[in-house]
Amino acid sequence: MQQGRVSGMCGIVGIALEDVSARAAIPIFYALYSLQHRGQESAGIATVSGTAGAGSVGGVHLERGMGLVSEVFRENLSKLKGNIGIGHVRYSTTGASTLKNAEPLVVDYRDGRIAIAHNGNIVNALQLRNELKKEGRIFHSDTDTEVLAHIFVKGLMKHNDPISALEEVMRRVVGSYSLTMLVNDTLIAVRDPVGFRPLCMGFIEGGEGANGVIFASESTAIDTLGGITLRDVRPGEVIIVREGCEYESFQFCKATNKAHCVFEYIYFARPDSVLDGRLVYDVRLKIGERLAEEHPVDADIVSPIPDSGVTFAIGYAKRSSIDYIEAFIKNRYVGRTFIMPEKEARETAVRLKLNVVRENVASKRVILVDDSIVRGTTSKRIVERVRRAGAKEVHLRIGSPPIKAPCYFGIDTPTREELIASSHSINEIRSILNADSIGYLSIEGLIDAIGMPAEDLCLGCLTGKYPVEVPGEECIAKQLKLWQF
After folding, report:
1. How far is 423 from 419, CA to CA, in rounded Å?
2. Cβ–Cβ contacts within 10 Å for residue 323, how many?
3. 478 pLDDT exceeds 50?
4. pTM above 0.70?
5. In CA terms, which of 208, 320, 361, 415 is 20 to 30 Å from 195?
6. Separation of alpha carbons 410 and 196, rounded Å
7. Assigned domain for 468 exists
């Protein structure tokens, strides 16, 4: 997938360990490492000492920096003391790619400190920011996470209770947000009322005081620590971890329908993650099989565009009975082009990361399978490289329907004018990309592969119809009673 920058598609972690002498920073580090695919711009960890829920104001230890998890914490992990903590890897949609916008965000208030790690994107952030500025509140970053923090602190000052403060956040904020938070020495996990972004909960059973509760964007982070995934945090739910890692759940509101992001299943999540009860690998395998049913073609080999197209291609090859053979070998030391913030860096990385295996494609009819096409620039280069390697035919098969509209909930899709599918027919796209044929998965095929009702999925970037109100856009839920506090 080829795109720009995101604040929404980040990775978050929250951990509370039973033993007050244990160090939460170490398992948070490994959990963030397993979520590195969700953001490569910056990483951060905030920790605090104390028994969860005891009410101590103690200091929050914060370390964050630009770059990968392994780079940011190469030397300073030992500074992070405390048995409770949260972590974040960032990929920005709002705010520049600078240290001031790295998370977790730590804010002082009258009765202590809070720290927030946010995965999502707030639709009405600018409106809320302007309102807060008029009240005299000062902002130190340009992220929507700081808007969330101010609204939460304002609620805390008013009610002196994090539950009431978070209820106020849910009433005022429109958009996507999964959060892990530290309020003094209490760990809190929050998911927005329609569940745009994933968040799961589990237990760590490490023994010798390392037992504890974990929240993470994907279940693979829990697997990495040898933990047990308990369940997904429900849309509209707040979970507070109390003393001794006992937790309490508050269901603030229930939406008429959910709005899980389909691109988590198509692209963002790791294939070994389980999101809202669906193993991502199985969904992608079914997408590939459905692609073969919807868009068959005579060919000699099926090849993925690594890595995101691999499982789709396996499914396509299985259903079509065409040999699965790699046309490309990936340089494993080059990160995702999608989440590199600058255009030139993305283009250079494409050339670095994929090498054509000429002997596998020469004189062959090749089916290339990818997750999606956004602008089409990278897809065009890939088709050209396979043709130069001697392929007789090049057929593109795409694991998502055409992307026709922007995303306002955490995916930094370009404007409609930049989206190739918003202004070109399928045949025009085929011609622009110089492919012999192109086949996109149908929306019905995607819904079937995910295995959820269409009403519980966010399909906004595919249909131009959004599950919550976005100024200037069509909302499919206008007549629904979304908020039931």
Report:
1. 7
2. 13
3. no
4. yes
5. 415
6. 9
7. no
- List active site positions: 10
d(CA 479, CA 312): 37
Q: Which residue has the higher pLDDT, 299 or 333?
A: 299
Dig out the tokens for 14 from the structure: 């929250």
325 and 222 part of one domain: no
Closest C-alpha to 445, from 311, 214, 284? 284
Distance between CA atoms of residues 447 and 458, nearest Å: 11
The per-residue pLDDT for range 33-66, each reduced to its tens digit, is: 999 999 999 999 999 987 544 444 458 999 999 9
Half-sphere exposure of 269 (CA within 13 A, CB side): 30
How many CB atoms neighbour CB 86 within 10 A?
Answer: 30
Of the pLDDT bands very low, low, confident and very high (cuts 50, 70, 90), residue 477 is: low
Contact at 8 Å (CB) between 91 and 10? yes
Q: How many CB atoms lie within 10 A of CB 55?
A: 13
How many whole angstroms separate alpha carbon 16 and alpha carbon 415? Answer: 41
Instruction: Show the tokens assigned to 206.
Output: 């490490």
Is residue 266 situated within a structural domain?
no
Question: Is the per-residue pLDDT at 246 higher than 70?
Answer: yes
Q: Give me the amino acid identity at 160.
A: N
> What's the structural domain count of the chain?
2
Query: CA–CA separation, 438 vs 460, rounded Å?
Result: 22
9 near 411, Cβ under 8 Å? yes
- How many residues can be counted in the chain? 485
* DSSP helix/strand/coil, 256: coil
Closest Cα to residue 116, out of 156, 76, 70?
A: 156
Q: Measured between alpha carbons, how far is 397 from 313 in angstroms, rounded to an integer?
A: 9
User: Which amino acid type is present at position 256?
Assistant: T
User: Do both 283 and 224 map to the same domain?
Assistant: no
User: pLDDT tens, 363-411?
Assistant: 999 999 999 999 999 899 999 999 999 999 999 999 999 999 999 997 7
Task: Return d(Cα 297, Cα 177) in angstroms, integer.
Answer: 41
* Cβ-contact 355, 59 below 8 angstroms: no
Same domain, 250 and 310: no
Domain that holds residue 429: 279-461
CA-based angle 201:36:340, to the nearest 5? 135
Residues 175 and 288 in one domain: no
Q: Angle between the 426-433 and 377-388 helix axes, to the nearest 10 degrees?
A: 50
Calpha distance 217→410 (Å, rounded): 14
